[in-house]
Structure formats: C-alpha cells, structure tokens
TrEMBL record:
Keywords: Membrane, Transmembrane, Transmembrane helix
Protein name per Swiss-Prot or TrEMBL: Uncharacterized protein
Family annotation (InterPro entries): DUF1774_fun (IPR013920)
Organism name: Mixia osmundae (strain CBS 9802 / IAM 14324 / JCM 22182 / KY 12970)
Transmembrane intervals: 21-43, 63-86, 93-115, 121-143, 155-174, 208-226, 233-249, 255-278
Domain of life: Eukaryota
Coiled-coil residue windows: none
C-alpha cells in the first residue's frame, strides 16, 4: 500500500486488483475485437453493410470509421501489453483506480452491441451504447484528476488516456446518435431485404434535419469547450476526423453539412485559442518581479531595526 495523489492504493504487482485486471482486460479486448470482426466480416450483412443499408442523416463513411476503430483497437492492445509489464507505482495506481473494471465492462458491453446491431435489434443496441458511454464518461472524468500529460508521461497518455478518449468520442459524436435514429425508425432503407420497411425518412426528413442540426451543434460546442479548457489536441483531432467521416457520407441536408463544417473549424479555433491563452498566462507569470532572497533578508532586517527604534523612543 502506498499513497499516490493523496490516496492510499494497492501498488503491489501481485495485488489481487492488478492481477484480476491483467487477466480479464485482455480477454475483454479480445472479445470486443473478435465480436466486431466476426459481425463485420463473417456475417452478411455485416456491421458496415447494415450501416449503409439503413441510411440516416448521421450515417458515417464506412471506410473512415473502420480506420478509426483499427487505430483504437491497436491502442487497446498496447494498453493490455502495458498492463502486463507495468512496474511504475503511478501507472499501476492509474490503471487500478482510473480504468479498473469499468473499461473491462465497456468492452464486454460493446461486444454485445455488435451482436444486437447485426441482428438489427436497434433498441437493444442503443441501450448497449448508452451503458458503454456512461462507463467511458466516468473513466474519463476519473482520469482528469490524475492529470496525465503526454509531455510528462507519454506512454501512459498514449496507451491509457488516448484509447478512453477515442472510444468515448466515437460513441459521443457518431454511434449513439446514428443508432438512436435507427431505434426511432428515422432511416431510409436502401438494402435488398424485401421484408424490411422503408422507415420514416421521406415523411419526416425535414424535422429530422433540424433535430440533428441542433444535436451536432450542441455536441460540437461541448467538444470545443473541452478542447479549450484542457488544451486537448487528441480530443480536437479525433472529433474533426469523425466529423469528416460524417460529411463524406451523402446525402446530408444543407443545415447538417453547415453545422458539421462549423463545429470542425471550431475545434481548431478552440485549440489554437487555448494554446495562445496558456502562452499568454505563462509570459505573465514569467514577467512578475520577485525580490531576490538577499533583498528579502535586508528588507526584514530593516523592518526589525525600525521597530526596535520605535520601542527605544
């Protein structure tokens, strides 16, 4: 037991909490990866084909989302390797108290999402995404208290913080909203299944467009606020990439296209403004005039002499 960041945590490499995570975390990642690969490649229609067949206003470009998930799973595998060989007390504490069992559960739930999505039970798959999103949000909020930065602890940041942020953002920016539209039947079916209904696309498309405009704008504003406050380049770049993936999948109503372009630009503006603000504050701190230690001693001596003279008078 040691104290890290004011908290007493188990840091023994053989501690039950760490050993548990070293066993079940790789299993959860492999299960999530395996379920998504099987549902994407071995089953027809697969994950990507279902996404294209059930067209919504927030359907992304399949190839770009595939690349995003590839990077995310590579980072998760890197996290599993780090977990197996970790020795630093700070990193072990971060893993146990920052991610812990919640990240394992998020991967298990996401594997379940792939099954429900492939079966086209969209309400159940939406519930899985919401549960997964809540778990990842709680992890991200916990990680904020540890203040891990790429300059101080690059490996921890890349293999622990980045997978959490990327996983959270793909749900927050794309999956939850796309799946939600499918759960409400706000889609246009363009596949070949004769038993599938057309959805509510044509009848209510104008209303959907303005609803999605509001959602994209609100989410983009929240993202830009987080980027500005945290000077978070990963958050900005991942959000922009996902917005581009949405933009490149047509058709999109004009108001949704405009909102996607604006919030993409807003992420860059927020990051640049944050960098300039931090630089300005740093220069202000450097410009403060501090008395040298000798001057402070002399000043204290002068005060003492002045008080002594007053007492003699």
């Amino acid at each position: 037991m040691e104290t890290v960041l004011g908290r007493t945590v188990e840091l023994d490499p053989a501690s039950p909490a760490l050993v548990r995570l070293q066993i079940i975390t790789p299993l959860s990642i492999l299960l999530s990866l395996g379920a998504n690969l099987v549902c994407a490649l071995a089953i027809k229609p697969g994950l990507g084909q279902i996404s294209d067949d059930y067209l919504t206003i927030l359907t992304p470009r399949k190839s770009l989302i595939g690349i995003y998930w590839l990077v995310l799973y590579v980072l998760q595998i890197g996290y599993a390797v780090l977990l197996a060989v970790v020795r630093k007390p700070e990193t072990r504490a971060l893993i146990i108290n920052g991610l812990g069992i919640r990240f394992v559960l998020a991967n298990f739930v996401f594997a379940l999402w792939a099954v429900f999505w492939t079966l086209r039970i969209f309400l159940a798959s939406e519930i899985c995404l919401l549960v997964c999103g809540v778990l990842l949000l709680s992890i991200w909020l916990t990680l904020l208290r540890w203040n891990t930065t790429i300059s101080k602890r690059p490996l921890d940041y890349i293999l622990i913080n980045m997978p959490v942020v990327m996983f959270l953002l793909v749900l927050w920016n794309v999956d939850i909203w796309q799946n939600g539209l499918l759960a409400f039947h706000w889609f246009k079916y363009v596949g070949s299944d004769p038993n599938e209904g057309p959805g509510k696309w044509e009848k209510e498309r104008g209303k959907h467009a303005w609803i999605i405009f509001g959602i994209v704008t609100a989410v983009g504003l929240i993202n830009s606020f987080i980027v500005f406050i945290g000077r978070d380049l990963v958050w900005a770049l991942a959000s922009i990439y996902l917005y581009i993936a949405l933009l490149l999948k047509e058709p999109k109503p004009p108001q949704v296209v405009i909102s996607l372009i604006l919030v993409s630009a807003l992420q860059l503006i927020a990051f640049v403004a944050s960098a300039l603000w931090y630089r300005y504050k740093a220069k202000q701190d450097e410009g403060r005039i501090l008395l040298p230690a000798d001057d402070l001693v002399e000043d204290d001596a002068a005060r003492a002499g002045f008080v002594s003279n007053l007492e003699e008078d």
